Amino acid sequence: MGIELTIVPFYSTIEEEPLEKVAEIMKRELTRYNQVTISNHVSSIEDEYSEIFTKNGPEFFRDMDGFMTVKVSGSPALFDYITAHYSTHALVFSDYPLVGLLKEIDAACSKDAPIAFVNIKRFRDDDSGTFIKRISALGLHELGHENGLQHHSTMVDNQFCPMFSPNLLAKPETWRKLEYVDSIGTVYCPKCKAEVGSSAL
Ligand SMILES: [Zn+2]
Ligand SMILES: [Zn+2]
Questions:
Q1: Minimal CB count within 10 Å: which of 14, 141, 159, 169?
Q2: How many whole angstroms from 165 Cα to the centroid of ligand 2?
Q3: Cα 144 to ligand 1 centroid, rounded to whole Å
Q4: How many structural domains comprise the chain?
Q5: CA of 161 to the centre of ligand 2 (A)
Q6: Does 89 fall in a domain?
Q7: pLDDT tens across 86-106, in order?
Q8: Entry pTM
Q9: Has residue 201 been placed in a domain?
Q10: 92 within 8 A of 111, measured Cβ to Cβ
Q11: Which ligand is the nearest neighbour of the Cα of 190?
């Protein structure tokens, strides 16, 4: 028995290589997942969720603990769709942002289901290693929340633990800067690692 993670490319241009690299990092860091798989690309929806992208103003709640992140209290169509189609924890990569009070949301986790979301478009870089590092760090942050981790600012090898969050009162323009993302590593600090390595959570 154990928990599984599915990485879901959802209306996304993300290629196989970065997906596989991200999967390796998730598996290495989130050892409570006994399996990490990559689903097929979802590029069309033909069920009752087909209007997902035309739906305006899904119910979002942005709390102030967020580093480029919101905890979603409502149930946007995307998260309903993922819950209906995947029975595992999910990390969703999309070229689309979620739409909320801030207009565009780069990364989020659901309060109601074990789903983490990252909008990959802003994190693209000519260097694929940089791209992979950015989306992995954000994925580890959001999945960290889903597995009970809180924000803090411990450094690991001159990079912040993925659970880093800047000044809570920083303006969105500040915390959406790439330099913040690039200051975050893809290795959990020992304290977080001990927690996400425990299947007893
Ligand atoms: Zn957070
Ligand atoms: Zn940590």
A1: 169
A2: 11
A3: 8
A4: 1
A5: 5
A6: yes
A7: 999 999 998 877 765 555 678
A8: 0.86
A9: no
A10: no
A11: 2
What CATH number is given to the structural domain containing 141?
A: 3.40.390.10
CA 55–ligand 1 middle distance (angstroms): 25
At 121, give phi and psi (nearest 5°): -60, -45
- Has residue 93 been placed in a domain? yes
Position 49 scores a pLDDT of 65
The domain of 41 spans: 3-196
Q: What is the pLDDT of residues 130-184, one digit of tens each?
A: 999 999 999 999 999 999 999 888 999 899 999 988 665 566 666 668 888 999 9
CA angle 158, 89, 92 (to 5 degrees): 70
Q: Which residue has the tokens 């690039």?
A: 182
Question: pLDDT at position 11, please?
Answer: 83
**CA–centroid distance, residue 153 to ligand 1 (Å):** 12
Q: 166 alpha carbon to ligand 1 midpoint, in Å?
A: 10
Are the C-beta atoms of residues 158 and 187 closer than 8 Å to each other?
no
| Cα–ligand 1 centroid distance for 165 (angstroms) | 7
- Ligand having the closest approach to the CA of 146: 1
Residue 143 lies in a domain: yes
